[in-house]
Design a protein that fits this description.
mainly alpha, 7 helices, globular, DNA-binding
Length: 143
C-alpha cells in the first residue's frame, strides 16, 4: 500500500529534481557537471573525488566521464591526495565558470532559505534527516 503523503513527497522531490535539471539545460551543462561543480563550490573549490560520488549519488563512472570533459575544458584539474585519494580542484577558469553557472543556484537557495523562519529551517532539516535515516534503515533491510 502506498500512502498519499509518501506519494506527494515523491512527486515533490521529482519536481525539485526537474527544476535543477531545467537549470542545467538552460545554462548548457549536464546534470552531472552541475552536481560536480555544485559540490566543488560548496567545498571551497577542492574536494576528494570519492566525496562527490557520496554526496551526489552519481555513479563513479559518470563522475569520471564528466571530470575528463571538465579537464579538457580546463575547468578542473586533479591532484594526488593521500594514498589512493584523488582531489578534484577548480581552475581559475573553473571558478569563473562556476560563478556564472552554479552560484546563481546558491543565490536562489539562499533567498528561499532566508524567507523561512529559523523554526521552519530547523523543522525542514529535522524532517529531511528523519526521512533519510528511515530510508537508509529500510533500504538496508531490503538489500
Amino acid at each position: 500500500m502506498h500512502y498519499l503523503g509518501a506519494e506527494q513527497y515523491t512527486y515533490l522531490a521529482g519536481e525539485i529534481n526537474a527544476l535543477y535539471h531545467e537549470a542545467a539545460v538552460k545554462t548548457g551543462i549536464s546534470d552531472s557537471v552541475q552536481n560536480i561543480l555544485y559540490v566543488l563550490c560548496e567545498k571551497g573549490g577542492k574536494c576528494l573525488q570519492s566525496e562527490i560520488s557520496r554526496l551526489t549519488g552519481i555513479s563513479r563512472q559518470t563522475i569520471n566521464s564528466a571530470i575528463r570533459k571538465l579537464e579538457k575544458e580546463e575547468i578542473v584539474y586533479l591532484e594526488q591526495g593521500k594514498g589512493r585519494n584523488t582531489i578534484l580542484c577548480l581552475t581559475e577558469k573553473g571558478q569563473k565558470f562556476s560563478l556564472e553557472k552554479i552560484y546563481p543556484l546558491h543565490e536562489i537557495e539562499n533567498k528561499i532559505w532566508s524567507e523561512w523562519t529559523p523554526e521552519e529551517q530547523q523543522q525542514y532539516l529535522a524532517l529531511t534527516k528523519k526521512y533519510r535515516d528511515g530510508l537508509k534503515k529500510y533500504m538496508e533491510a531490503l538489500l
